[in-house]
Write a structure and sequence with these properties.
about 180 residues; seven-stranded mixed beta sheet; 7 strands
């Protein structure tokens, strides 16, 4: 499989069915629907049940709120990352303030049959390009060390360091906070 052939598309009403299929497939993140750190404009608490989380994500996608990217291999969705303005996420994501034009990368999912094939690098590069096109001047991510027993869906610190992300702090005992200006090496 050649990562150069992958296509990346933002989640929109037109791609919602693809996101739903990827998340609902074998090993997909169908329990969380990437709603863990998202803010709710109506002040409601975060949805608890998977069906509520899916419905909340669907509402965001159908209203054209930026929620993330899907990556396609030969037309089939195989990877996902959550990337959106920092202001769309709650305070527990990071203690850093939600600056204008700061975007957050919070979650990655790669279908099992596409892992360990440089898919993360392609997905991260696509996410950076997407955020920059949407006006991001800084991207923040929350990776963990390779041996971390939790938050592994946030990515691993060495991968972000290899892409030029700079540590700026920590959140809790496991998550690092790293930042990068899109286009910077």
């Amino acid at each position: 499989m050649n990562r150069a052939d992958w296509q990346f598309r933002a989640v929109t009403p037109e791609t919602w069915a693809d996101m739903s299929a990827l998340f609902s497939g074998r090993g997909g993140p169908m329990q969380c629907w990437c709603m863990l750190w998202r803010s709710h404009s109506d002040g409601a608490t975060a949805p608890k049940l998977p069906t509520e989380r899916k419905a909340a994500m669907q509402r965001l996608a159908l209203s054209r709120q930026p929620v993330g990217l899907l990556g396609y291999d030969q037309g089939v969705p195989v990877v996902w990352c959550s990337i959106a303005p920092r202001s769309m996420f709650g305070k527990s994501l990071s203690s850093t303030p939600a600056e204008p034009d700061l975007w957050s990368l919070t979650c990655f999912f790669i279908r099992a049959d596409h892992r360990k094939q440089s898919g993360f690098a392609a997905l991260l590069a696509a996410a950076e390009t997407h955020a920059a096109k949407e006006g991001a001047t800084v991207i923040e991510a929350y990776p963990v060390d390779k041996g971390s027993p939790s938050y592994r869906f946030c990515g691993f610190m060495p991968a972000f360091e290899a892409f030029g992300y700079v540590p700026v702090g920590t959140v809790g005992t496991r998550r690092h906070v790293v930042r990068k200006v899109p286009g910077a090496c």
